[in-house]
Amino acid sequence: MVSALYVVLGALFLIKLSIDVIRLRRQYRVAHGDGGFYELQIAMRIHGNAMENIPIALLLLVMMEMNGADIWMLHLCGLFFFAGRAMHGWGMHHSIMYWRRNGMLITGLALIGMVICNLMFMPWDLILTLR
Q: Domains in the chain, please, with CATH?
């Protein structure tokens, strides 16, 4: 299963971002919330954005594979999605709008591509049957 590679990559992204938040919480001695520290606010938002996007993308990718999409389509969508996530996170961390904006654009296009691929490869004959 090709999508398993991207599920593992998504888990590693989330673990890394969680560790970043934990490190900053310890550094600033903040148990709840952001304590008013800008760096912690940004790390929490980067993690939150990833949590909002990665699970649905991975679900779409797994469903693409189950529906019989070509392997190159899985890799294309997966690579574009994670490249977009990395660009967005880097842009947010360094306050560079160009990277942040383009990262979100690539992430969004990858998600739209996964939706379209799922619609193309969906077994419509089984879904629309009356039996």
A: 3-122 (1.20.120.550)
**How far, in Å, are 40, 42, 47, 92, 116 from residue 27 at the CA level?**
10, 15, 17, 20, 44
Distance CA 25, CA 31 (A): 7
pLDDT of residue 124: 85
Sequence-distant (6+) residues with CB within 8 A of 53 are 85, 107, 111
Rounded CA separation 68/98 (Å): 36
Give the model confidence (pLDDT) of 25-53 as tens digits: 999 999 898 898 999 999 999 999 999 99
Read off φ and ψ for residue 129, nearest 5 degrees.
Answer: -75, 150
